Amino acid sequence: MAGGGLPHSFESAHSAGNALWWLKAWAPSGRFRGATRSASADASCVFTRSLEVDLKDLQFAVFGAGFWAPFQIAGWQEVEGARCVAIYNRTLAKAEKVAKAFGIPRVYADPEKLLEREKLDFLDVITDGGTHCRYVQMAARHKLPVITQKSMANTLAEGESMVKACREAGVPLLVHENWRWQNQIREFKKALDSGDIGTPFRARMFQVTGYPIFTTEPNLKDLEEYILKDMGTHLLDVARFLFGEADRLYCQTHQVHKDIKGEDVATVMMHMGGKTTVTCYMGFPGHFLENDVFTQTLILAEGDKGSLELDRHYWLRVTTESGTRSHRYPPVYKPWMLPDYVASHSSIARCNAHLLQALRGERQAETTGDDNLKTLRLAFAAYESARTGNAVRLCMGSAPGEQELHLARHGNL
Q1: Please, what are the domains in the chain?
Q2: C-alpha gyration radius of the chain
């Protein structure tokens, strides 16, 4: 990197306090209403529910007005069929600022009052992970379908209680796990499933960057468990999406930044789908890389008939006996996205469209609370492995609907 400085895109990174700077270019809301939505037509999304839902806009409320809320709300305004009618935030001024930018008619400083007064079809929780359990259980008490951000919960017990509460209330719990909805990752999945490279025996997933994340999101410094529950849940979910469930796992972590509480680097090796060794490299060590591609995820899969690579700048390459085929799948940039975050921000609307279809009963959601518990359990198994220095064996329960992973220390991967 020339001069040893930050890449040009990094120099324009914005602090959390200025996260709304770009909204002035297009507020008030409604500019994106009617935009073409990009809901997936993957075979994994099947018609399984028969809810009677009018073909009108579903009305929803948002809990949270922090760093991620404006991006999530902007993503909803890319999707036809949903309208945000209220927002809650414990700091009312922040909620008022977001509401003004997006034309949200009502603002609350009390979440219970919002749920009591508003007539809603669902709730979208966009708060920090430590509050997800409280707000999801609150929605369940009101018999209200709820979407929550990843990571789903702060602890495994909280995640299980959230799933239980919504199941007993008879309402859906969905998780806004958008990483798998990036266009280039969906195309990687299609190429992998085509069989062109044969049976995958090894894969590498890489998301390590020198991006100054603790400047953009300073609240992350205070998390005692960071990288595995933040970036890790994204990568572990994508690994499951691509390669199947893990039965063994080994992890090592590091803390490179000395002014943070948690780990900022992790390496996780898993045996997945009964056949593939998958290694996930993740980290925000704040160092310098010649080719830093925050927030892109780079993936290489090796099969017995070839290889499949998702490389920098969204290039997908399939290499077999007949040669290499290459195609680029770049994200579509919209004015509300931060340029440095475009790889992840571009998947928000697509994820929202998919979840909306599930709420309408048109499809089965990929990232339900039950499903995301599996990702959460991988993250906590990784912490267990890192603490003990041992590999962890994971066994999926065999009873119908049982989602428990039984952890047992195991000396060898």
Answers
A1: 2-178 (3.40.50.720), 182-336+369-410 (3.30.360.10)
A2: 21
Rounded to whole angstroms, how far apart are CA atoms 207 and 192?
20
CA 84 to chain centroid? 21
Question: What whole-number distance in Å separates Cα of residue 121 and Cα of residue 104?
Answer: 16
Contacting residues for 397 by C-beta, under 8 A, at least 6 apart: 403, 404, 405, 406
Q: Nearest-CA neighbor of 124 among 351, 381, 400?
A: 351
Torsion, CA 399, CA 132, CA 147, CA 121, rounded to 10: 110
Distance CA 337, CA 339 (A): 6
| Residue 331 reports pLDDT greater than 60 | yes
Structure tokens of 186? 């969906």
Cis peptide before 48 (omega within 30 of 0): no
Question: Is the bond leading into 151 cis (omega within 30 degrees of zero)?
Answer: yes
State the pTM of this model.
Answer: 0.84
For the segment 10-20, what is each residue's pLDDT rounded down to a tens digit?
A: 233 333 333 34
Please tell me the distance from the alpha carbon of residue 164 to that of residue 361, in angstroms, as a whole number.
Answer: 21
Alpha carbon of 196 to those of 140, 238, 272, 337: distances in Å? Answer: 45, 20, 19, 35
| Residue 333, token pair as written in the block | 């940039």
Q: Are strands 306-311 and 298-303 parallel, antiparallel or unpaired?
A: antiparallel
Looking only at the bridges linking them, the beta strands covering 82-88 and 58-63 are parallel
| 83's tokens | 């309208």
Cβ atoms 203, 300 nearer than 8 A? yes
Question: DSSP per residue over 53-117, as a string?
Answer: --SSPEEEEEE--SSSHHHHHHHHTTSTTEEEEEEE-SSHHHHHHHHHHHT--EEES-HHHHHHH
Closest CA to 250 of 407, 409, 405, 390: 390
Angle at 347 between CA 357 and CA 235, to 5 degrees: 105
Tell me the per-residue pLDDT of 67-84, one tens digit each, with 9 for 90 and over. 999 999 999 999 999 999
Residues 6 or more apart whose CB falls under 8 angstroms from that of 145 comprise: 121, 122, 123, 139, 171, 172, 173, 174, 359
Q: What DSSP string runs through 228-297? A: TTTHHHHHHHHHHHHH--EEEEEEEEE---TTSSS--EEEEEEEETTTEEEEEEEE------TT--TT--
Token pair listed for 189: 């999945």
